[in-house]
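User: Can you help me understand a structure? I only have the sequence.
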Amino acid sequence: MFKVQLVADTQKAEPFNCPVDWIDVSLPNSTKLVLSVPETWTSKVYGDKSQFIQLQNDDRTLTVSGGLLEGQDFTNLSTDGARLFSLQTVLETQNWDFYSERSAEIGVYALNRGYVVRFSRRMFSSGNITDNEWAQIVTPDLEEVFVMAETTRDDFAKIDLLTLEQVFASIRTKQ
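Assistant: Let's start by predicting it. Here is the structure, written out as tokens:
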């Protein structure tokens, strides 16, 4: 059984404050968005048009990939529930050998809204089951950023989940 958590109180939203020892990284394929990560993380841009970024923590147990979505209909969906359901549907219809949803939530991360699904999957029958978190982050300017996180641990460490929340909160327009 998984949990669905709805966080509707956007009145508590506050601007992101960059933690000490974090750095800003420009989001590929965007002229105005940045995100922040711990300075010990590595980053590389990839894709046939260099449109995605891959981030990895210092012990290589957490990999985060993502990019700006353009021309998507996600923000055109009328409710938060519809947006979360849309992300869940994408995940459930993948052609993976194994898929098990653990949680789905709508959260407020600084000034951003996040639609987050945590799940386990196995790509092929001969592969390992991995723990994943996929999120659709929507900025106040309705920019959509898609984020995929995967851990090599048996499950996400609490510190990894807290760090991911800070990364979600850090997506913002360059100052």
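Now, to help you interpret it: The helical segments are 80-92, 158-170. Residues 3-173 form a domain with the Protein Transport Mog1p; Chain A fold (CATH 3.40.1000.10). Let me know which part you'd like to focus on.
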